[in-house]
Amino acid sequence: MKKYQRLKRTTGILLTAALILGSLSGCSKKEEAGSGQEAMEESGTGNGGGGTAMGRFLEEEIALPTDFYDIYDMKKLEDGTIRFMGNDGNGVKSIWDSKDSGTTWEKAFDLPEEFQDENAGYIDYAAISSDGQSACVFNEIVSGSGINPAIYILDREGKADRLPFDIPEVKGETSGPQFVFSDDSEHPERVDDGADTEEPGTEDESENEENPSGEGTGIRNMVLDLKFLGSDQLLIKDIRDNIYQVSIADGSIKQTYEFDGSVESHQCFVAGKTMVIQTSTETLLYDTETGEQKQAEEALRKAVSENGAFTVTDTTDNGESIYGLSRGGLYHYKFGGSVLEQLIDGTMNSLGGPSFYANALTMLDEQNLLVVANDDNSGKPGGMVLLKYTYSPDTPAKPDKELKVYSLYNNKELRQAISSFQKEHADIYINYEVAMSEESGMTVSDALKTLTTEIMAGKGPDVLVLDGMPVETYMEKGILKDISSVVTEGNYFESILKAWEDEQGQLCAIPARFKIPVIQASGQYFTEDFDELTQKAGCLAGQHPDEIIRKFWYTCGTAWKKDDNTLDEGKITEFLTKLKNAYGEYDSSVENVSTDVGFAEEGKEVSMANRDSISQGVFDVAFGDIKVNVGLLGGYDMDYILAANKKLGDGDYGHMPGQAENVFVPAMIMGISSKSTQPEAAEEFVKFLFTTQAQKFFQGGGFAVEKDAFRTTNDGHEYEGKEGLVGVGGAGMDRILDYELKPRTEEEMKKFTELAESLTTPSLQDEVIRDAVVEQGEKVLKGELSPEEAAGAIMQKVNLYLAE
């Protein structure tokens, strides 16, 4: 039985939008490729003759000898053997060797019996040296005292000896990452990951100050990573991001490198005798012979900051240079140089997929490499895949056909689909542009004005993800073409799929995903009727005023629009009046509470960054801080909802009440520009997004509109036979909410599916109107304006916008 928990505290950003449109025909009523290719051309393997640039790494999947649920490390040994350590589908930990660069594998040995007993402990991290040694962290489960991390060294034949090293105790304040244990916990997880740690002075910190060693509290030091340094030393990282350079011969600490893990996580890599430390913003180098920090490599720091930190690395020249994988692809850097070369563009293969997490990189030579990774969308029982990349000098560096895809916000499901589509369509390069990011500083208004200008000039994108855009206005202005032909086959939720079908049967905008506005409460407060809910004075108290307005906007806003496209001021006034009664008196102390909750399952982070998610209030309603929890259901939420309802005793969930009925929130709304220069390729790509294969890509961004994929991604079938697996979520160390990760019952799936099938009305897609409502509605709930005054202000602002 396993328990997992991760708490994240993030800040949501409310954005505003505006739109300038011209008339078009249609429906009516980054990253650069990098210099790696240049390096290949300079060496004579590419074509630098001024025509089509040639040369690209091609991806192929290599069969693993069996299904694996984890592969801890993989290394090319001094004699050319490729060796990895893995945990297979039967829970057997073993070492495998390949003499032919990964094509075929033979088991070298199983790890000793003491490592195979899951009741005795488990392995989280392991490493392999170039001479064939292995090191692993075996977390011993000690009855009555929790987890004791022990490090073992295995020789090339599998004989294991315990390293005489005990990781130093946690000292001082424990505001950094912590672990949660319970009587039936097998694997602990970090409660937070540093960047989201509570500020000093919080309740958790004061509790830990009373017991800084963590003894008896379930909080202790743990090993979070280890790497071989040559064949005679290890680099061992603890929960504070302290790194200990330890002798394998006697377990003595040669050097200690201290970093502040409460600010940001520090990743450790080895290149020869150099230790490379990376965060999201900096790269530090250390001489492991002296322990001294080396001179900064500005070119490496800047490039990594722009392209993303490495997840795995390797070297082929004893540390004179380093190869690294990130979301952007494969990079190479020669220490002392001025350029980080991009050798593989991750957007054109699996490397850039959101569900793809590399466990190890093994460079066979400069033009061949192996990557072992966990890929949730691989279809493998354990998710582990082995990929080989081979440089092909006769393949164009980039396909001739370029398809431009545009969205306001980053979309993980779309990125995963792009990765899969490009593997199957080597002749098409998809250039995905995301307008909004924290770094860009651009507003929605700026983004849409720029988009409109480019479309009118014939330089706009081919495919549009319309989330956050005024869909109906785009349709009326002819910006979008009819794409009804892409969904002629399939078992879909028809009312969702055809939300914007016109009288002629044209579909110019089609949601590939959807979210459900839901309410969760105990029997005393639960209702799906808006009038009944808002008559319960104070039932929405204790929550942020702006969040209440924004969440109920989804189920009410669409009821305000009149036939002439103006808004009904009377209904807006009614909306604000009723919510004010349900909210009650404003308590300014709620402004000091801001918790967005994320969860980690088996080391896989699942971010709940969307402030409107139902998950945001799950723990508050379960522990009685709020009476009613409302929000959007569209990700990894159902386990937590059911667990909270169980704790409430008579808790229930259903459709969020509102002035409109049966409302859903369209997501990943696809459209094709009527001025697309690649209409056939655009239709082929959009059609792929509605296949069962692509619909099963699930990153928490909304449910599939294809029914088979909807069931598969929500029925919990992956937990079949693992009913003992238990997850933990917590809104604070003092409150833990347990839930079982197990297949859904037929009754649970029936209720959930019937809820999805009842949805018929898309929420209003216009962020300008929404933001105007939230701005004024917040003042009503705070008692600063009357509902009538706020409605008038909303109408004034929206009328000016609609007149543009």
Description of the molecule:
The chain is an alpha+beta fold. Among the domains are: 34-63 and 297-397, no CATH class; 403-513 and 670-698, D-Maltodextrin-Binding Protein, domain 2; 514-666 and 708-803, D-Maltodextrin-Binding Protein, domain 2 (3-Layer(aba) Sandwich). It is built from 18 helices and 36 strands. The strands form 9 sheets. Strands 24, 25, 26, 27, 30, 31, 32, 33 and 36 form a 9-stranded mixed β-sheet that branches. Helix 17 runs antiparallel to helix 18. Residues 1-25, 29-49, 173-218 and 594-609 have low confidence and may be disordered.
CATH class of the domain at 514-666 and 708-803: Alpha Beta
Give the integer mean of the pLDDT values. Answer: 84
CATH architecture of the domain at 514-666 and 708-803: 3-Layer(aba) Sandwich
CATH topology-level name of the domain at 514-666 and 708-803: D-Maltodextrin-Binding Protein, domain 2
Strand portion? 25-35%
Give me the count of strands: 36
Low-confidence stretches: 1-25, 29-49, 173-218, 594-609
List the total number of helices: 18
Helix content: 10-25%
Structural class: alpha+beta
How would you sum up the major sheet? 9 strands, mixed
Rg (C-alpha, Å): 28 Å
Could you give the topology of this structure?
Blueprint: H1 36-42, E1 54-62, E2 68-76, E3 82-88, E4 93-98, E5 106-110, E6 121-128, E7 134-142, E8 146-154, E9 160-162, H2 203-209, E10 223-229, E11 233-238, E12 243-247, E13 253-257, E14 267-271, E15 274-278, E16 283-287, H3 298-307, E17 312-314, E18 321-326, E19 329-334, E20 341-345, E21 356-365, E22 368-375, E23 384-396, E24 401-407, H4 412-424, E25 428-434, H5 444-456, E26 463-465, H6 471-476, H7 494-497, E27 510-521, H8 530-534, H9 545-556, H10 569-583, E28 599-601, E29 604-606, H11 618-622, E30 628-633, H12 638-648, E31 652-655, E32 663-672, H13 679-689, H14 692-695, E33 703-704, H15 707-712, E34 726-732, E35 735-740, H16 746-757, E36 761-762, H17 767-781, H18 787-803
Parallel strand pairs: 24-25, 24-26, 32-36
Antiparallel strand pairs: 1-23, 2-3, 3-4, 4-5, 6-7, 7-8, 8-9, 10-11, 11-12, 12-13, 14-15, 15-16, 17-18, 18-19, 19-20, 21-22, 22-23, 26-32, 27-30, 27-31, 27-32, 27-33, 28-29, 34-35
Helix pairs in contact: 9-10, 9-17, 10-18, 17-18
